[in-house]
Design goal:
This protein is mostly helical. The relative contact order is 0.12.
């Protein structure tokens, strides 16, 4: 379940370019500072994969706020299988959400919906009173498997 640092850096660089730099270049004619973006992405990856949980969560919050603005963060299910999605799930859970469906939990964990059901039945994941699985138990499960 570990995330490759290089894959994480590449994804962060690509998303920053796509969501922030390309629109600025189109609107303002500003050249993309590619070297600066790569350096920043390497710093973010260090924080996201580092030992300091608080720094990782704060970095996650800043990146999500900047790269996925809006009132409610709701990525497509497949996003959780990306390097950044895997790190977010492990370090911060699902920001702003206390429980998710079995299918989203499966995507966050990289297992099938049936696999989530089995983990819940074995007490490895916590069922939420409103249905689904608690995001806290998903994050705890991911951290315990490191």
């Amino acid at each position: 379940m570990s995330v490759s640092r290089d894959a994480l850096v590449e994804q962060l660089v690509a998303v920053v370019r796509q969501r922030l730099l390309d629109p600025l270049e189109i609107l303002l004619g500003i050249d993309q500072p590619a070297d600066r973006v790569r350096t920043a992405a390497e710093d973010w990856a260090t924080q996201l994969l580092g030992e300091d949980q608080t720094a990782a969560v704060m970095c996650t919050a800043r990146l999500i706020a900047a790269l996925y603005p809006g009132d409610h963060f709701e990525p497509p299910v497949g996003w959780w299988g990306t390097p950044f999605g895997r790190v977010v799930a492990r370090r911060a859970g699902y920001p702003g959400v206390d429980h998710v469906s079995y299918s989203v939990a499966g995507a966050m964990l990289g297992v099938t919906r049936q696999g989530v059901h089995d983990l819940v039945n074995r007490g490895k994941l916590a069922r939420h009173a409103d249905g689904g699985v608690t995001t806290e138990s998903i994050s705890n499960r991911m951290r315990s498997l490191e």
